[in-house]
Amino acid sequence: MAMIQRSQRFIIGCLSVFVLVLSLLGGVTAQESTFSLDAVREEAFWKLDHWMDVSMFPEKDPQRKSHKKALKKGRHNFNDRTLTIFKTGSYRVEMPGFGHGLYYRSDGTLSAVEFYLGDAYPYKIHQYSYPFGRLLKTTIQVSPDEIFTFSPTGRLTQHWLEGLCYQGDKEQHSCSPQRVSNR
Question: What residue ranges do the domains of the chain occupy?
Answer without folding.
Answer: 28-167
